[in-house]
Amino acid sequence: MVRDLRNRPLRDLRISLTDRCNMRCRYCMPREHFENHDFLDKQEILSYEELTLVVESLVPLGLAKVRLTGGEPLLRRDVCDFIKMLPQELDIAMTTNGLLLEKYAHDLALSGLNRVTVSLDAIDIETFQAMGDTKDTPETVLRGIETARKAGLSVKVNCVVRAGYNEHSVEKITERFIGTDVVVRFIEFMDVGETNSWQDQEVITGQMMRSMLDNLVKIEPTYVGEVANRYQRGKQEIGFIESVSKPFCGDCNRARLSADGSLYTCLFASKGNDLKGIIRMDATKKQIANAVRTIWSSRDDAYSENRGSGETEKVEMSFIGG
Ligand code: SAM
Ligand code: SF4
Ligand code: SF4
Asked: Is the CB of 160 under 6 A from ligand 1?
């Protein structure tokens, strides 16, 4: 097993399958910045065979989980074929905006996907369309969630809460999933990337969100490195991802692989470590593992604990994968 300079293992790989998206969430890909954006060309993106090679190389280093994300992962063609290629002993999850979930949920479950996290910032159409800068509706996402549950996938809902936009979603989304097995998690608006005009006045902290809900009882984390602080409300589980007000770098065991094959050791990094170069020079699994071991062993990232202390330009979240 490989450990970084803070003794953190590498357990979780988030793979960005594409830098493209069918939404333009204001907090992630503001339209004015992404209108004339140069998205990656097909030949720049790692193929499914190349991605599988990376994943298989990392298993001996201690990798236990893979999360497929993006951009919007369901925009990548034949994603189910890729899931079937992955080592099935891994915990395989996906984060999606859910717009295409109704169409793919059954095939995803059959392919070996274990869990899906669906982003949903509002139940009311006005807020959903304003935050996502989209003409799509929350109904489409809700149908996707229902289909995924029926297909046997374990489902979580992620809701980013941003002051002035969707504070009311804390109550509304919690209520919407009462009586279901869907775990709802509320996320503090983060200063990822350089385009979302983040300001700290727009952060609704986990503490503020909890004050909007009654009868919350704190429960223990299920594993080391869990990002959400878990609460129970009756039979319902609610999580709060408080990376601004309560950073959790101490247990961060996540690496991110951009669609063009760079490995990032922090969500707030400005630079990745190119793996595509060695992959396309026919590196063996052992050589890829050695390269990643070297990168991870010198990792000292803890951005959220030192927020605002003179960072250089941060990469966009839609590029490295949320
Ligand atoms: N498109 C997919 C989706 O939206 O679920 C996957 C990629 S998206 C970058 C992954 C997650 O990052 C989503 O749950 C999204 O809400 C979250 N996210 C994006 N920008 C964020 C920000 N500025 N603060 C907090 N969460 C953010
Ligand atoms: Fe797309 Fe997800 Fe970013 Fe929204 S949060 S713009 S759905 S990548
Ligand atoms: Fe991990 Fe970086 Fe986030 Fe800290 S800021 S939890 S090191 S990704």
From this structure: yes
* Ligand 3 contact, 252 CB (< 6 A): yes
Separation of 28 CA from ligand 1 center, angstroms? 7
Which numbered atom of ligand 3 lies nearest the CA of 304?
Answer: 5
Alpha-carbon distance 108 to 140, whole Å?
A: 17
The Cα–Cα gap between 31 and 17 comes to 21
Side-by-side strand order, sheet with 183-188: 217-218, 229-233, 236-241, 183-188, 154-161, 115-119, 91-96, 65-69, 12-16, 254-257, 262-264, 273-274
Residue 189 in contact with residue 204, Cβ under 8 Å?
yes
- Are 243 and 190 a contacting pair, CB within 8 Å? yes
Which two three-digit tokens encode residue 240? 């709060």
Ligand 2, pocket-test mutation among 37, 97, 256, most atoms within 8 A of CB: 97
Q: Which atom of ligand 2 is nearest to the CA of 132?
A: 4
Distance of CA 224 to the CA centre of its chain: 18
pLDDT per position as a tens digit, 4-49:
999 999 999 999 999 999 999 999 999 999 999 999 999 999 999 9
Q: How far apart, in whole angstroms, are the C-alpha atoms of residue 103 and residue 87?
A: 24
Question: All domains of the chain, ordered by start, with CATH?
Answer: 12-320 (3.20.20.70)
Which residue owns the Cα nearest ligand 2 atom 4?
25
DSSP 243: T
Q: What is the pLDDT of residues 200-232, one digit of tens each?
A: 999 999 999 999 999 999 999 988 888 999 999
Q: Return the bridge partners of 96, or none.
A: 118
| Ligand 1 site, residue 119, Cβ cutoff 6 A | yes
